[in-house]
Amino acid sequence: MSTVPPLAAQAEVARYRHGRVPRAVRERQVIEAAEQLFAEQGFAAASMDELSRRVGVSKPVVYALVGSKEELFRRCVERMSATLAERVTAAVAAAPDPRSQMEAATLSFFRFVAQQPRLWEVLAFDTGPFSADAAAIRHTQNVLVAALLDGAAQRGGAAADPIRASALASAVNGAIEALARWWHGHEDVAPEELTRLAVGLLLPGLEQLLAA
After folding, report:
1. Three-class SS of 130-155
2. 3: pLDDT strictly greater than 60
3. From CA 129, how far away is CA 123, in angstroms rounded?
């Protein structure tokens, strides 16, 4: 269910064929190639030797640019978290009402997981060195959903209650992430169907609570 995007930095590097590639450009190339490699092979199987081969520079140069394999993975995760937040925010902004906003945000999440399954699996199932990185992504998602719920409550005439919004956001994201975990091994289910199930389960209770 993975679709790997093209490497934008790779094309940029090609512009410097007859000259020295700027460090920032080469660094972006390495990170983009690493994201693709981790997406294909997962963290454990991906090797820095293969990464240096794909980028076309020596392994010491890769280490000098981005640090260790663990540090590189964390940088990829940071980019992944920022991209996910941008997509969810844009999807919500384009939706006309609370139901559509929840559907758009949920579908955006599931589509992102479908595009980056190996990266997401490390964060979703790992309890070791990357547990803090997973917690940071969950916090970002909780903040986004809490803001969405708070806005929906205020539009419905309810008083703003950030504690309740935060609690509900954690519950919503936990349920959606649990469904994404279940998806591992059931990849024939489409993101749209998962969205239908999640929204059908969660929205009625949210609407009742937000109207109270």
Report:
1. CHHHHHHHHHHHHHHHHHHHHHHHHH
2. no
3. 10
